[in-house]
Design brief:
The structure is a homotetramer of 439-residue chains. The first copy, chain A, is of the alpha+beta class and 439 residues long. The first copy, chain A, contains 8 helices and 24 strands. Helix content of chain A is 17%, strand content 28%. A 6-stranded mixed sheet of chain A has the order 1-4-17-6-14-18, with no helix packed on it. In chain A, strands 2, 3, 5, 11 and 15 form a 5-stranded mixed sheet that branches. In chain A, strands 10-9-8-7-16 form a 5-stranded antiparallel sheet. In chain A, helix 5 crosses helix 6. Chains B and C meet through strand 6, strand 8, helix 2, strand 12 and strand 17 of B and strand 6, strand 8, helix 2, strand 12 and strand 17 of C. Strand 22 of chain A pairs antiparallel with strand 8 of chain B. Chains A, B, C, D: It comes from Podospora didyma. Chains A, B, C, D: One of its GO terms (molecular function) is hydrolase activity, acting on carbon-nitrogen (but not peptide) bonds, in linear amides. Chains A, B, C, D: This is Acetamidase/Formamidase. Chains A, B, C, D: Pfam families: FmdA_AmdA.
């Protein structure tokens, strides 16, 4: 009773060449045989190789990038039959998760040599270069670009349904016209090329046909999306993909741990092998009903903020400043939480009264964190870091730099400022040097 | 044709006492006369005094806080007749804006003396204290709490509709029971008190009645909300308020430029006088239809993040690195924008190739900013600040501290590292010391 | 004591032509006389006309847009002397606020006729058209595009410092080369043109010179920013502007209540007249120290989310379900807040036990809202709207549509499902049909 | 070269009882033997059982919840020796990730019977109940609470370092005083109890001692945190934990896929077994340097927004409306992207000119998505969903409800409104009914 695993419809191997694995392919063509079948409504896992099919290694030389064989890239997983999908339908693809393999926790970013691939800035930066990234949970960092760490906005670079013969013909025609008109000193598009063609489980004759006709995977194209390289088409996103052939023939690959807008160095994202979890739903007649000429998508709910939270959270429990245990008293807990914050701010030079005023009016977050674990209610108070014009982080506090001159708040007449930090006029409670309460 | 002003239904004066202004009042009672009429669906402006009615001054002593007369506070604006509202309806209040008066750009936070008002931590901090805050646009800062500046999450502390006689009776009964059972050494609730009663335009006899029966304004109460002091019930919020009497008798006041959860020092928010802009809509029979026993609200869309944006944005235009003007070429502009960012990162020790790799894979934001101002397309590139483990802000860049050791990215064999920062192997473009392009 | 107003350095008039107001100008040129002086560190207000200088009216015809005189636009406020600024410095401009005039609460978006201005899609949409927008607080809406309302990301379209003679010469040279090379059937750039030149307080001879040399204001340019039209260069943003001439000669104008990336219809933002509040700081030698070739900026903290908050917030107070008043008891308040939410969810078909389970595990926000207003603690509980796959908003609740089939949670053996919603097995509390507690 | 796996320091078994696994324990005590050793600076994986040690099953009866043995819960993983940690240090714990086991993709939320555990609302809801949740990637949903799906804010309920003998004595003393003074009709705290004690690899004699002295795990406590149940102490969070004994003796457990503030039903979170990935760093003398009496934390960067993205993103490529292929032309791609959006909005009744105006001024997001995949530049345009007062989602578009009356924008004189939607006056391009371009 109750599901506990998700079906894996595409296992890939690192021990044999991509070109020998029948559930992979590197062309867009309607005749590539199905690599598996997925039910309408089903959620499955699909394993993917990195986009170079393993040509780039986890080392400190970019020679592999320089010499990469660009006819052996973009091995996509699929194509998969989505039951019930027909031409004119939309395939609603919800990306439930993307993860690297747990025993392959790394990826790479490359700059191609200007003579073999190039990139957006290749006239200025013509050499091949590379950075290897290590993954630790949601974060990545690189020995080649020190002092950088961030959470990945992980996503597939390529996903789409196979073109019909008509759509494929449109592509080949318009790209051939561009090539024919080219006067630039560089390739402007890549025509079909019967070299290193991998057509999944197709036999030799079919593979030859696909090699002659099949569209290359480099550009994204308006009719199906394909290699769109959109950085926030990430976890939780819902993509609406036009279906052109029976069964949809959905393919996916080119996983990215992260990418910037433009993916400017061409091999620009953090390329990786991994597993994507997808839910599929067929929307009958959706292309006409939404009049879609190109895919649309709605981003998911977990886009990283690309910074740590900008609050320091203090915890407090229902044990008062005299050490007395109270039973589930949230007000006592919140009072203690406030005091923890006031104590923390002392080291930057603020008097307790200044901090008490500040906690009252600054937009602190006061939460009922736990209210069922007897006898201790737990509350938290989040102090926004950025309302200060100096650094109040624990790192800064530990650095023990000079305190700023914090002046004073206004007091009633007769209060000696020196005493108020230590508990205030007429207070029965005073604070010793160790910042602990004493009577 | 076309509306160009918003009707102001409540002007307040700073030149005469609050108690003499007939559109203000300081009790909750169904018999306080209407201060004006508002149409169902109308948007109006309502001016409000600060909650002490002007007792607290913009100076450097807290004696005014210590000696505040707490029987002369919470002068609310209203009550207003909302046309068509009847008992059992909901009043949908949308807060379109809250602003301080443009010639009164300041507010205050107070700590009351333990003997006159007190607060959440008064056993530890018994003295009166005060901070004055200056407003500059969306920001506030205080000479009494230096090195703090933040955007206000501006909101009304009090808003609600008048209780019916029955609801008022419930309040008075249950609070009297609490007072009767009190064994603490402090006030636990404030009963009706015929002292300094201001009942708007009521005559003497009615004012006397209201003084004897009218509920005090300090606590919020479940049946109508009232002094709820909710920090994010701010601009753009929609509040659903139960209506208990014909015409609703809506009142509002106690404006806060900002407040923390709990408003812990009691006079804790940044208290201010100002103008609130509200849209009113009546939902017939809404109390039963939503079965509301207390107000609910949906927060608005402009909650500050309480920090600056965590990106540095670079601008680029369609003038290339040779100074040539291109016509609306977005790719040229985006290429220039990328170069601006690479140049910026040099001063922290990164080589151009490291930055080029980083721009490709880090989640940079690449926007088409302006695409219609001939001949220059303008693009922007936002670099996330927090992916670095050191400070890359302009402030840090200007401080000229020592560069970190940034190592190197991987290169193809034969590339001299020293040269690649300066344009790369075989490059026709090199960079001089002044970081300008030369051929 | 204590500042209470902000100095207004530029008043504009709606009663006389823009061309007659000496603190406005419509060319970039180093010789335009100063319109005022601002201290290093000072915050000031600057009034601005809309970018057409009042040519577009609040009515329902686009003839004014069709016939707009494009030689009479971009009347900028300034140029202002910033004390101490010199060539090579950076001017740090912090945008403290932007507001429309309170008696001119409207703006416009136009599509220019293809023959007079045009725009990004003019080959497809060649006619002139217009939408008038009304402002109510932070929101705008238009009778010409019904069913749309949003919070403005308000910003200046143009800001920058005057070019030096050398910089101006660079601009004129490179744009002339583009014009000379033009083979398109449209203008690709606008050269200096001595027609309707407004050079502020310049005398006739100087105005003639400025007309011959002065750069047009349409394009943004890399050396100073200018008409960059960046949609999130909004409130709270800090812009770093290169200074080219003594005193900086800062100008600003073309205020937008909102704009989309690209400002695609050319007259595309919501254009308005209004007041911008700016703080100015001079960073000596900043151009070299940051090696800036173009402005950079850090966005502010109040970017709207362009949707309402995605939570429904429930309020609860320390009055328990038997009507008993408790003194500042946060747990009682939070328990009541939870019950308010459980009651609310009943109308969608959930049993109380389902909702109780859901409140425990869904990411609800539980806040200590007010903790100082005796005798009532106030807590809030925010229920995320989007975790449901149907609409739980008050609007939907009021619509009284059919309930979905909500099934049941798992129960212990022997519990009758029908009873548990009404208080549970062995419960002394049951719920009547009116959703009120009865014993 | 290059790390590719993360060390797993704690494997748990589902095949034998928790009480027989030596790397688990269910008391806080300084003498529980180390379960493993972790380096200062190391990142490791730690497997954890669910907090009931497997007592709750994936089925449709809550009898297991009703009869749960609460003396057999909170089997924590650890305690681990952190090399170099000493009393007075802080342990900086960075939560790199938390994941369920891939073959156990489910969790549970329970309501305890009032007579066995109870909860926050047990006086009103006394019966046991349960909901089982299925996990699919980042999302969870339950057959017991239909029509709810959300992304988990996944976190550990319990983490902390072992108390010293002195700290333990303080806990036992103050909680005993509370128990002694109890006059309520329920347990207010749980004293040490030598029943079902699991002390990891301790021998019999030591286990007996730990049973008599060891603190129960239910409450969080100020000195070390422990069972704090804080909902956003999630992935990416950095927690600063006081160290009380040599080697820190860090323990963790009680993983939650999600929890609401308060965890109100006691067994309230979505409880699960799984794997937590943590980076450990020792901060020497940190307790005194930060004067921490309780843990503090800084939340991570990936808090879900608990809703889908509130934008619909349109994709466009550099193939123009005549089917012509352009080479990497971003302006063509952005123009197409704009047209895709205009076409989409037609079905809701907007004319093309209205949409063109709206795209110009509403805060649409225009991104350079991909700029290196020849020949197609790819741009995206994000249209904010919530600026409309009706539903523009694809789901709504597919529902084919009646169109609203959208009126018209303002036009220049002489334009026939009927024609402008179809391409505009003088346009060479018109649109057929099928929403495709024809010449």
């Amino acid at each position: 009773m109750g599901k506990s695993e998700i079906r894996n419809v595409c296992k890939v191997s690192f021990d044999k060449p991509a070109a020998e694995q029948p559930n992979l392919h590197n062309r867009w063509h309607p005749d590539i045989p199905f690599a598996g079948t997925i039910k309408d409504g089903e959620t499955v896992k699909i394993e993917c190789l990195d986009w170079t099919g393993g040509q780039i290694k986890n080392n400190d030389s970019a020679d592999d990038v320089k010499n990469v064989d660009l006819t052996k890239v973009h091995y996509l997983s699929g194509p998969f039959e989505i039951e019930g999908a027909e031409k004119g339908d939309l395939l609603l693809v919800e990306i439930m998760d993307v993860q690297p393999f747990q025993d392959q926790l790394w990826g790479f970013t490359g700059i191609f040599d200007k003579g073999n691939g190039g990139g957006f800035l290749d006239e200025i930066y013509p050499s091949a270069a590379k950075a290897i990234w290590d993954f630790e949970g949601i974060f990545c960092s690189s020995r080649h670009i020190p002092h950088v760490k961030f959470a990945g906005l992980i996503h597939p670079g390529i996903l789409g349904c196979a073109p019909s013969a008509e759509v494929l013909d449109t592509w080949n025609t318009r790209e051939a016209e561009l090539i024919a008109a080219n006067k630039l000193d560089r390739d402007v598009a890549l025509p079909p090329q019967p070299l290193n063609v991998h057509a999944g489980s197709a036999d030799e004759a079919l593979t030859e046909k696909i090699g002659k006709e099949g569209a290359r995977t480099i550009p994204g194209r308006p009719e199906h999306g394909g290699n769109c390289d959109i950085k926030n088409l990430s976890r939780g996103s819902k993509v609406y993909l036009p279906v052109h052939v029976p069964g949809a023939k959905f393919s996916v690959g080119d996983l990215h741990f992260s990418q910037g807008d433009g993916e400017i160095s061409f091999c620009g994202a953090i390329e990786m092998a991994g597993v994507i979890t997808i839910n599929f739903k067929v929307i009958k007649n959706g292309v006409a009903d939404l009049a879609l000429k190109s895919p649309i998508y709605i981003p998911g709910p977990v886009e990283p903020s690309f910074g740590p939270g900008r609050y320091i959270y203090f915890e407090g429990f229902s044990v008062d400043e005299h050490g007395k245990q109270h039973y589930m008293d949230v007000a006592v807990a919140y009072r203690q939480t406030s005091l923890r914050c006031i104590e923390y701010l002392r080291r930057f030079g603020y008097s307790d009264y200044q901090s008490y005023l500040l906690l009252s009016c600054a937009p602190v977050q006061g939460h009922v964190a736990g209210i069922v674990d007897i006898p201790n209610a737990c509350t938290t108070l989040g102090l926004p870091i950025d309302i200060f014009d100096f650094d109040i982080s624990p790192t800064a506090a530990l650095a023990k730099t000079d305190k700023l001159n914090m002046g004073s708040c206004a007091f009633e007449t007769g209060v000696e400022e020196g005493r108020v930090t230590a508990g205030g006029k007429n207070s029965k409670v005073s604070f010793g040097g160790g910042l602990t309460y004493k009577e």
